[in-house]
Write a structure and sequence with these properties.
Oligomer: single chain
Largest sheet: 2 strands, antiparallel
Low-confidence stretches: 1-9
Number of domains: 1
Mean pLDDT: 85
Radius of gyration: 19 Å
Strand order of the largest sheet: 1-2
Shape: globular
Helix content: 55-70%
Strand content: 5-15%
Number of helices: 7
Amino acid sequence: MSKTGTHSSNGRTAKRQQLRRSDLLPMSAAAFRAASLRNHLALVAMRQGFGHAEIAGDLLQTAYLTYFICGMDADQDSLETCVAAELTIKASVAHAKMAGEWTLKSEHAHYVEKMLRQHDAQLTTLALRTIEAAARRLSQVLEDGGMPNLASTYMRVLKQRCESPACVVPA
């Protein structure tokens, strides 16, 4: 089955995407296990002091992807989990640049663990097209030469939420 088709409206031809059944389902169990194992082994390597720039980068990209999958409308705890993981990994990278040790301090590793559990839940429950859309968005940001800054993005989200009529500030 073709993934794209054409649609004529008002004399114009536009491409539309035809969804496959697999696009509407979560990723396969085998693909999930491979992705999850890669992420969790990266965390183990960092915790045990066997990390390097590529492993830290993979964990950072997983934090970004998890955040992008959540979307701006996600609950506060989900977004904060991603921000905490990002800051933890970035602190580890800064430490590696100064001390030459690619490690993740055990007192902070729980932030990354929580983010990985959240990401695992996303991979096993959300439609593959949702995950792929977030991955394309992240890829575009990285290709454009930017690096997401989840902490500042999260602060903007909080500000926008509090400016909305539904925001109630406790007295």
